[in-house]
Design a protein that fits this description.
The chain is of the alpha/beta class and 387 residues long. It has a single domain (37-352, 366-371), classed as TIM Barrel (Alpha-Beta Barrel), CATH 3.20.20. 37% of the residues lie in helices and 12% in strands. The chain is built from 14 helices and ten strands. It has helices spanning 2-13, 19-26, 33-48, 90-102, 119-135, 152-159, 175-178, 184-196, 213-226, 252-265, 277-281, 285-288, 308-317, 332-335, and strands at 51-61, 107-112, 140-144, 163-165, 200-202, 205-207, 230-235, 270-273, 294-296, 321-322. Strands 1, 2, 3, 4, 5, 6, 7, 8, 9 and 10 form a ten-stranded parallel β-sheet that branches. Strand 1, helix 4 (90-102) and strand 2 (107-112) form a beta-alpha-beta unit. Helix 2 packs antiparallel against helix 10 and helix 5 packs parallel to helix 6 (152-159). It is globular. Bound molecules: iron/sulfur cluster. Iron/sulfur cluster binds at residues 65, 67, 69, 72, 74-75, 113, 115, 146, 345-346. Catalyzes the conversion of dethiobiotin (DTB) to biotin by the insertion of a sulfur atom into dethiobiotin via a radical-based mechanism. Pathway: Cofactor biosynthesis; biotin biosynthesis; biotin from 7,8-diaminononanoate: step 2/2. It is an enzyme of class 2 (transferase).
């Protein structure tokens, strides 16, 4: 297909595709899907080989958020039955992080619900970062604490943070339909603050919130302009008890096209499959490794992921390898500025429940509420974490 040859050539040269080319990827048919994956896979392998970077989420503070992001189970008024707790102590967070590192994670993503940190919160997280760095040699730490005020990014950098995550989530045009308590411009400002402080910027999107193809292309083009080192691609987990709880509109094929389009537009950037991997890609997860070079290991912020061991087996079975701490994630032209990736305010995910006995096979496009499991283990509980 001419389109795919053009996109591969551009991806290898880091040349921006046209909007029409990006839209055409999203419009390809299921008959062309493997060709699309193969083409984007060439770009992925050119910049990242067969390496998969593992990231581990630690939810420092869960629920009780005053903001109203419609997709989020921690939002104001959420009736999702998630764990709710206030700040973990540095040693508790460090223990949770150590479990992820022992499971193969190279980066720990420290996430806290809320509009943004107070200066006292930054002190608290700084202590946590130091504890994690002391106990886990070579680990990268990304903070995700919401909107930053002046000087806070610099303080996190001084404390040893490598990266800061703040997602754009959706297009500027539709942002107001998803969240009313802060703006798209606020989000852009925080990503810029992280960049300016010398932190590796991580910013991504959430697909499946009812957006159009144009919205998806808009947000990915905006991300390319912001130039983060890593782009987490979340697939909405429609939590019951949130305004988007009925938005079951993704298929595994659609998810693969979205990841392929993201790879073509951001060819040399760490593209991470974030929340919703198990819920929406399901048995197609290994194909997605040909597009993304990074995933979260184990559980998400408020929901459970598949067992960490299953993540590792999937990577090996698909012919990929877990990226080691001695390997540099980003291509050389990017690596000098930072290390590249992070968690996600709103990164959510599930546990793949077994389908037992004579249960009817799910139909394509049917809501898969059976795959959404609220997290009940790890940080904030007495149970061992999944890593
Ligand atoms: S995404 Fe972050 S800011 Fe928005 S409601 Fe959830 S925790 Fe709060």
């Amino acid at each position: 297909m001419d389109l795919l040859n053009t996109l591969v050539d551009k991806g290898l040269r880091r040349e921006l595709p046209t909007r029409d080319e990006a839209l055409a990827v999203l419009a390809t048919s299921d008959d062309d899907l493997l060709d699309v994956v193969a083409a984007a896979g060439k770009v992925r392998r050119h910049w990242f080989g067969r390496r998969v970077k593992l990231n581990y989420l630690v939810n420092l503070k869960s629920g009780l958020c005053p903001e109203d992001c419609s997709y989020c189970s921690q939002r104001l008024g959420s009736e999702a039955g998630i764990l709710k707790y206030t700040w973990l102590k540095p040693d508790q967070a460090s223990d949770a992080a150590a479990a992820g590192v022992a499971g193969g994670a190279k980066r720990v993503c420290l996430v806290a619900s809320g509009r943004g940190p107070t200066d006292r919160d930054v002190d608290r997280v700084s202590e946590t970062i130091k504890a994690i760095k002391e106990n886990n040699e070579g680990v990268e730490v990304c903070a995700c604490l919401g909107l930053l005020s002046d000087g806070q990014a610099e303080r996190l950098r001084e404390a040893g943070a490598d990266a800061y995550n703040h997602n754009l989530n959706t297009s500027e045009a539709t942002y107001g339909e998803i969240t009313t308590t802060h703006t798209y411009a606020d989000r852009v400002d925080t990503v810029n603050k992280a960049h300016a402080a010398g932190l590796s910027a991580c910013s991504g999107l959430i697909a499946g919130m009812g957006e159009t193809d144009e919205d998806l292309v808009d947000v990915v083009f905006s991300l390319r302009e912001l130039d983060p080192d890593s782009v987490p691609v979340n697939f909405l987990i429609p939590f019951e008890g949130t305004p988007l709880g009925k938005e079951w509109n993704l298929t595994p094929q659609r998810c693969l096209r979205i990841l392929a389009m993201t790879r073509f537009v951001c060819p040399d950037v760490e593209v991470r499959i974030a929340g919703g991997r198990e819920v929406h890609l399901r048995t197609m997860q290994p194909l997605a490794l040909h597009l993304a070079n990074s995933i979260f290991l184990g559980d998400y912020l408020t929901s459970e992921g598949q067992a960490g061991k299953a993540d590792l087996e999937m990577i090996a079975d698909a012919g990929f390898e877990v990226e080691g701490t001695d390997q540099v994630t980003l291509p050389e032209h990017r690596a000098s500025g930072g290390c590249g990736s992070g968690g996600g305010c709103g990164s959510e995910g599930p546990e793949g429940n077994g389908v037992c006995g004579s249960a009817p096979a799910p139909q394509a496009g049917e809501p898969r509420t059976d795959l959404v499991a609220v997290r009940r283990r790890g940080a904030g509980t007495d149970l061992a974490p999944n890593a």
